[in-house]
Design brief:
19 helices, 12 strands, Arc Repressor Mutant, subunit A, Glutamyl-tRNA Synthetase, domain 3, about 475 residues, mainly alpha
Amino acid sequence: MASASGGVVTRFAPSPTGFLHIGGARTALFNWLYARRHGGKYLLRIEDTDRARSTEPAIAAIFDGLGWLGLEGDEPPVFQFARSERHAQVAHQLLERGAAYRCYLTPEDLATRRAAAQAERRTFRIDSEWRDADASSWPSDRPFVVRIKAPRDGETTIADEVQGTVTVANAELDDFVLLRSDGTPTYMLAVVVDDHDMGVTHVIRGDDHLNNAFRQLAIIHAMGWPEPVYAHVPMILGGDGAKLSKRHGAVGVDAYRDEMGLMPEAVFNYLLRLGWGHGDREEISRDEAVALFDLSGVGRSPSRFDMKKLLNLNGHYIREADDARLAELVAPRIGPDVDRALLTAAMPQLKLRAKDLVELAAGARFLFTQRPLQLDEKAAALLTDDARGLLANISDRLKTQNDWTLAALEANLKAYAEEVGLGLGKLAQPLRAALTGTTTSPGIFDVLVLLGRDEALARIDAQARTEV
């Protein structure tokens, strides 16, 4: 457990009730960057107090997603449920200080009062007769909850690093529950105690928690603890301005890696720019992000998720990536026992046209396909009788060529195209279909070189001999 030492300490505190979604990943990123920028610590806390919905697979998915993005914590993670005794201890300290009280109102009492407030069209707030009752009057044989004595006069102001100065009248705050009737602590209490004990100095989280901050400050002030600096980041919307959903891309971070084939540096970069800016720059490296990031660059308005922009950015990082690394990432998508050396050699050409690893794998698959090739519909349509005759002639010509290099092959086939009065494209189209089984591939001369003389000629001959 960290302790306050004068330096910056941030935290990311997900609830393990599902996958690590894109909004959570951005929150983790902003916390990680702020700590790095200021030479501080970035901590992880798993808020697993909802025992019915917290699962081990969800916890594993969160750690997996954070690891992929390079956002692991600087210390072992804290698990909130394991600290329940400590949370309850603070609630009892608040009782002793007179900052909290035992409330014996039953659920039925509260339901009756809530219904009356609705009938009178007024806001329902807890106004418990037990708030100021003497401890000597507390029944010993009835269940109770422990409530905070929220301030009723004046107002509370937060100087939020993103939202600016926000003020709430204390009369708007309610006496929320700290300990349930079974003695278990509530989320609202646990968060405050954990942040204090972990030495968190900056609470950077979604703006859906802004109202919670005012309630949590009631505990902080009652305990005499230092206030953290708050920064409530706006939510992420879909491109159409609606709440982010699966159709916009609100899926687990693992889906961006596994199903979409995105690069971690692209997702890192995109999340950085989703609500934070530094001039017009789009492509920002990890090291540059650490040097540039500050909360003043985070906007107050919701961000819009743009899958097209993310894929364009991913294409950039694929083109920038090391070829051997790409081969390692792509090989499992093609099949077992893929020749890594051949795949690496093909990457300079393959990566020029791919936006993601799925496309990259699809573009590379022809290299490892066994004969006879299965032609797709467009490729099959290209191989007319005339085209097959052309392939037979090309095969005869290439069989006399021993210099199987890019320049030599290009010179040979360009000369042949001039001899027969055809554009090079008219030669390349059926040749590509015969060599790859598709109508899209790297440059045709690159394909010939990558396949090698024997395999390339065997594929051309297989289609030249086949009758339509």
